[in-house]
Amino acid sequence: MTEPLDVLAAMAHPDDAEMLCGGALIKSGDAGERTGVLDLTAGEAGSRGTPEVRAREAAAAAEIMGLAVRRCAGLPDARLANDLESRSRVAELLRELRPRVVVTHWTRGRHPDHAAAARLVREASFLAGLGNFRCAGEPHRPHKIVHALAFREEDAKPAFVVDVTAQMDRKIAALEAYGSQFEGVAGMGEALPAGDRPLMDQVRCVHAKYGALIRRRYGEPYWVEETMRVETLGSAVVPSF
């Protein structure tokens, strides 16, 4: 049996984890935590690149981020669905990788795969812990599901922000490993419309916005459904004034 993961990013497409939570994954690795990425699809329906090219890019990015493991669930790109077959496949992989924390997409998004991934990952995480749920592996249920909020058009307030200042250059390097997706591209999705600045400069600007919320240079925003616990009021660290 493989050693359990501390953090697993379960995202719809190769490069989603790098874009949405790459800094936090690198930071966890820096702290000695075992990290991994589960790409739900191979990105075969994308407008740029091929599955083979994207797989090589994903492997290069995984090395930059220091991941312990990267897997692809092989679900259909642009047709990702929260159905029993898909839940069973993801639950099987969760039982194999045994992550403590799972990071996935925000619950809404322009790309239908992103919203589908958020619901699929949450439900598969619950089912993976059921003793009589029919899929391979011993039951395992992640302790926490976290949703990544970066690059959202709507202004959803994060539950917390991770300081990724020290990891930002490596996050950018991991993104740049995806030449088929980002080389020569001026914009990306909802939150990065095409402009006159290089794409990676725009990525830094987005993270600078969230860094400012916690009085740091760069930050990655996250949301959780459950109310977070604070041990004492005296431990609060971000000033009000």
Care to describe what's here?
Helices cover 37% and strands 15% of the residues. The protein is α/β, with parallel strands linked by helices and 241 residues long. Helix 1 links the parallel strand 1 (7-11) and strand 2. It has seven helices and seven strands. Helix 3 crosses helix 4 (112-127). The model has no long low-confidence stretch (mean pLDDT 93). It has one domain (7-224): 3-Layer(aba) Sandwich (Rossmann fold). Strands 3-2-1-4-5-7-6 form a seven-stranded mixed sheet, with helices on both faces. The chain has helices at residues 16-30, 51-65, 84-97, 112-127, 168-176, 179-182, 199-213; strands at 7-11, 35-41, 69-75, 101-104, 144-148, 160-163, 219-223. It is globular and about 50 Å long.
Question: How many distinct folded domains?
Answer: 1
Helix run count: 7
Shape: globular
Straight-line distance between termini: 50 Å
Percent of residues in β-strands: 15-25%
Element-by-element helix/strand order:
EHEHEHEHEEHHHE
Question: Radius of gyration over alpha carbons?
Answer: 17 Å
CATH H-tier superfamily: LmbE-like
Q: Helical proportion?
A: 25-40%
DSSP summary, beta strand count? 7
- Class derived from helix and strand content: alpha/beta
Q: Please state how the strands of the largest beta sheet are arranged side by side.
A: 3-2-1-4-5-7-6
Can you tell me the CATH class? Answer: Alpha Beta
Poorly predicted sequence stretches spanning 5 or more consecutive residues: none
Mean pLDDT: 93
What is the fold-level CATH name, i.e. the topology?
Answer: Rossmann fold
Major sheet size, sense and barrel closure: 7 strands, mixed
Please tell me the CATH architecture by its name: 3-Layer(aba) Sandwich
